[in-house]
Design goal:
Helix content: 10-25%
Radius of gyration: 29 Å
Bound molecules: 2-acetamido-2-deoxy-beta-D-glucopyranose
Largest sheet: 8 strands, mixed
Strand content: 25-35%
Shape: globular
Number of strands: 49
Length: about 900
């Protein structure tokens, strides 16, 4: 276990009470007719670019798109072209709506087609906490704490500020009317250009991402039709303006903050409306446009649960990186969900995925105490509460240990609270519920004092209320109880304070953990992203404090601009950027307790970026990441090279600095974050252990990595650490990462009753009851089956096939239920080779496919739409739309294990449903 893991900084999670027993109930089922986060029948198809077609006979100056469409027509495949891409070298292809999703495999078989991938939805950037308010001209500088801990202040002092560099921000748009973002739009201004791909009203209607969004009706109501225009202005969302300020805020502003690359030029690509999700074909469009417009850097503070490196936007982001531009993408804010839940397109193999480190300070405000002697009290808001005058305190309880203060309507004896500042203790019910009760008695300004859950931003809806620390609240409540004339005021200027963050300098707990399911090193590097003050749309307050990997990502984009300014914009510089950032980063501990291990590299990446050292490094160590992979594909012997690009001869010694080993599974399921750490580390040997390199010369180092011993493989321990190359003057490091288990042993399909109180997978009827025996369905509006399943781990391939009810087959999961200990597989059920041949899959006779999906992410354990998958058969149809004749059937579910071989029966998990009668 990780001793002294830091406390949660997410107040909303801290107050959520979890019901005992099962986490979900059948009433949580929502009758979705798609599985996963894809849009039905919509695909992105990649075709050969004209120049890649070896014999141009077929081409005769026609576009490869047109040849492809002709092939579709020849095969009588129904399709509609939604969009075309033509970026030779990056991506040539189309977005198609197919008449039948099952035609995807036929499309892939067409000559010249390289790939076909479903269009997936990406949720809006999650904002971990938001504090906004009016502009306060008197607030002092925050000391640029984020710039100080990363060496950006030293680069600014050298006059390096991003001059001549173009950064494309793919986000919610930017409010360039904010004077600190240049005040205007177009050539000559800070925001030189961009595009609005969507318009205000666009937004797939989901809050929680992935599965939740997939109700078909959301696609028919018109709000999801993008309305593009050339103006990326955003005055309704705000996220992109905050991102833009981290890169480019003008240094002369009321807070004296500045962008990391405040002299760089910005192109703003707006791909989110005022709220809601975006489909990834629009991300692809923005990426290709950003590349075409000559941006040196593209930055994306967005992502959706993915787990794999295969998504279209991930693949294209990686190709753009390969071309020598720098692409920075948020790692994600799903740290609480644990490991194996990485986000796309940050998963793009050569993109830079960015983790967040908490700022060392939190910019907050003080209130003044009157009537009794007391120091100013710090309250959790970046900007002063808009409250005038000095107001007496009224405490809703004089008991400073009360558990459920103001959770019930206040007593009749309560005075009119409109002339008071009301004091309430945190706990038991939501803040909004307390404040609603206070408001019922006229109270409109409330201080909530902490009960030990932690001092943080809180969710108070429209109410004027802030959190104060426990001791301050206890003091005010006791003074009130004693009848002292205690009152407070909220200075509108001069009361800003830099509150030291207890988690400052540590990896933000919300940072999503890597690696990907195919074992790529994600995130790459960390930057300040927790409690960041930056610009905001003028109508929304001009400045705001937000937290998220969304904030860390533009920081690295800004550092990338400084790198390009200092070293030139050649593709060679772009290609070594990640290596430079990783090998010079600062290692981050897992807590502030001495003796605790370093944070797992699966959450900190190679450490907190050190912009000054990265840009001025005269030693290039590469590769910067050594991946040993899992035990079944173990590569324990690796090499790296140390190249002296300086003017002096250097002597280095090599040492091993292990990080905590992440125990990514606990009790058969992925461990929630903070993921427990073990101090049992890998053993690493080097040859040579020290050496001298002359200017212009390189030294090769061979490394032998042996996984840690004494750990349980069933915990899927991910070990990681640093190989330090150092002398008294300088130090660099290479990172390594491996798994002390075989990924193939991870159980993909959850077959427990943990989540629903009854075993899944299961078939539910239209009222959400799980059926246990044969059942007939008429497929009217209230009588149809739904398949309910959870993925405990990502899978490269999932299929549901309709089979005969009396099929002779021994499935892994049903068998486990019956014979949990022995795991006997008696017969060889499906054998290889398998192919797209009809009527069977892996030699099991099937009647037709109900669903097929590749590279699916695992589920979370949270009931927000990501916790389980559901596929409702509201009509009796195969995946290709053909009607299933009346009769009796079962559904066979098969999921390929990670690293499994799709031609081997033993690499699939399988489950057979009860008999389903179709009586339509
Ligand atoms: C804010 O209050 C804290 C706690 O009393 C105090 O240490 C700090 O100096 C105050 N800052 C300002 C600017 O008043
Ligand atoms: C609460 O609202 C009322 C009505 O708008 C106003 O008169 C009163 O001053 C407000 N109280 C505070 C504490 O701001
Ligand atoms: C906030 O205020 C708006 C406008 O007055 C209202 O529509 C909305 O319901 C309020 N929200 C909450 C959470 O009270
Ligand atoms: C790890 O091994 C698997 C199985 O061979 C492979 O698919 C994957 O690409 C490897 N990952 C890396 C980062 O090399
Ligand atoms: C389903 O309907 C068929 C045909 O009417 C009937 O033979 C069968 O008994 C029914 N099964 C159940 C479980 O009701
Ligand atoms: C749907 O079919 C079921 C089962 O036959 C029946 O009980 C129910 O009344 C039908 N509902 C409607 C709306 O026709
Ligand atoms: C759809 O799939 C079913 C089951 O595999 C098959 O019998 C049918 O011919 C297919 N229909 C079309 C139009 O391809």
């Amino acid at each position: 276990m990780a001793p002294g893991m830091v406390s949660l900084v997410l107040p909303l999670l801290a107050v959520t009470s979890v019901a005992l027993g099962a986490k979900f109930s059948p009433s949580d089922l929502t009758r979705k007719t798609t599985f996963g986060n894809t849009i039905p029948n919509k695909f992105i198809v990649e075709v050969d670019a004209a120049q890649d077609i070896p014999t141009k006979r077929e081409l005769d100056n026609r576009r490869s798109h047109d040849i492809f469409y002709e092939h579709l027509e020849k095969r009588s495949l129904g399709f509609k072209v939604e969009k075309e891409f033509d970026s030779p070298g990056l991506f040539t292809g189309s977005v198609l709506t197919l008449d039948s999703a099952q035609d995807a495999s036929k499309v892939l078989a067409i000559p010249g087609v390289k790939a076909i991938r479903p269009v997936v939805l990406v949720p809006p950037p999650k904002q971990v906490h938001v504090v906004t308010g009016p502009d306060d001209p008197q607030v002092p500088a925050d000391g640029e704490s984020t710039h100080v801990i990363t060496g950006v202040d030293k680069l600014h002092a050298q006059g390096i500020s991003g001059k001549g560099i173009k950064i494309g921000i793919i986000d919610t748009g930017v409010d360039y009317t904010n004077p600190y973002l240049g005040g205007a739009f177009g050539p000559g201004h800070k925001v030189i250009g961009g595009y609005d791909f969507v318009g205000d009203a666009y937004g797939q209607s989901n809050q929680h991402c992935v599965i939740e969004i997939l109700v078909l009706t959301t696609f028919a109501d018109g709000t999801n039709t993008p309305v593009p225009d050339s103006d990326p202005l955003d005055q309704c969302n705000g996220h992109g303006s905050h991102v833009a300020g981290i890169i480019g805020a003008e240094p002369v502003n009321p807070f004296n903050i500045s962008g990391v690359a405040f002299d760089a030029s910005i192109n703003a690509y707006r791909i989110f409306g005022c709220s809601g999700s975006v489909s990834d074909d629009i991300i692809v469009e923005a990426l290709l446009q950003g590349a075409k417009d000559g941006n040196n850097i593209l930055t994306l503070s967005l992502g959706g649960t993915d787990g794999w490196t295969e998504g279209t936007a991930s693949v294209i982001a990686s190709r753009i990186s390969d071309s020598g531009r720098i692409v920075t993408i948020a790692a994600g804010n799903d740290g609480s969900v644990g490991s194996w839940y990485t986000s796309g397109p940050g998963n793009g193999i050569d993109a830079i995925s960015v983790a967040s480190v908490d700022n060392t300070i939190i910019p907050l405000q003080n209130l003044t105490v009157h009537g009794v002697t007391h120091d100013p009290i710090t309250y959790f808001s970046a900007l002063p509460l808009p409250v005038e005058g000095t107001l007496p305190i009224y405490a809703t309880s004089t008991d400073v240990t009360v558990a459920d203060d103001a959770c019930n309507p206040l007593p009749d004896s309560t005075p009119d609270l409109s002339k008071y500042v009301v004091l309430v203790r945190r706990g038991s019910c939501t803040f909004v519920q307390k404040l609603t009760n206070v408001a019922a008695k006229g109270g409109n300004v409330t201080l909530i004092y902490d009960n030990g859950n932690g001092f943080a931003g809180i969710e108070v809806g429209n109410f004027t209320a802030v959190l104060i620390q426990a001791a301050d609240g206890v003091f005010l409540a006791q003074q009130f109880a004693a009848g002292a004339p205690v009152a407070v005021s909220f200075p509108q200027s001069g009361a800003s304070t830099n509150f030291p963050s207890s988690t400052g300098g540590l990896v933000s707990t919300f940072t999503t953990y890597g690696p990907t399911n195919d074992f790529y090193f994600k995130p790459a590097v960390a930057a300040p992203g927790g409690n960041i003050l930056s610009t905001y749309p003028v109508p929304l307050g001009t400045f705001a404090v937000l937290s998220g990997t969304s904030m860390a990502t533009p920081f690295v984009a800004g550092v990338s601009a400084l790198l390009f300014e200092a070293r030139g914009t050649s593709p060679a510089v772009g290609r070594i950027a990640r290596t430079l950032f990783e090998t010079t980063a600062q290692r981050v501990p897992s807590s502030k307790t001495d003796g605790d291990p370093l944070q797992t590299l699966t959450q900190q990446g190679a450490g907190l970026i050190d912009a000054f050292r990265a840009i001025h490094a005269d030693v290039l160590v590469s590769p910067s990441e050594l991946i040993t992979n899992d035990t079944a594909h173990f590569r324990g012997v690796q090499t790296f090279t140390v190249k002296n690009q300086g003017k002096d001869t250097k002597t280095f010694k090599i040492s091993h600095v292990p990080a905590g080993t992440a125990l990514t599974f606990q009790g058969g399921v992925p461990a929630d974050g903070p993921v427990p750490l073990s101090s049992k580390a890998a053993n690493v040997k080097f040859v040579p252990t020290s050496f001298t390199v002359h200017p212009g010369q390189s030294q090769r180092v061979t490394v032998l990595i042996t996984p840690p011993t004494g750990l349980n493989a069933s915990d899927f321990p991910v070990f990681s650490g640093f190989l330090e190359i150092s002398n008294a003057q300088e130090s660099y490091h290479v990172t390594y990462l491996g798994l002390a288990a075989a990924l193939k042993n991870a159980q993909v399909i959850d077959n427990t009753d943990t989540f629903f109180g009854a075993k899944i997978p299961a078939i539910a009827d239209a009222s959400g009851n799980f059926i246990t025996g044969p059942q007939n369905f008429t497929f009217n509006s209230t009588d149809f089956p739904s398949l309910v399943a959870r993925l405990n781990f990502g899978t490269p391939k999932l299929r549901f096939d309709l089979v005969e009810p009396n099929i002779k087959i021994s499935t892994t999961l049903n068998r486990r239920e019956e014979d949990a200990e022995k795991h006997v597989f008696e017969r060889s059920l499906f054998s290889f080779p398998w192919g797209p041949g009809s009527g069977s899959f892996a030699s099991v006779k099937t009647l037709g496919s109900l669903y097929e999906g590749d590279f699916l992410p695992r589920n979370s354990d949270v009931n927000d739409g990501t916790g389980f998958n559901e596929l409702s058969f509201t009509t009796p149809t195969f995946a290709n739309g053909t009607t299933i004749p009346d009769g009796s059937y079962r559904i066979l579910l098969r999921a390929l294990k990670v690293t499994g071989d799709p031609t081997k029966e033993g690499d699939f998990e399988s489950w057979l449903s009860p008999v389903i009668g179709v009586q339509a």
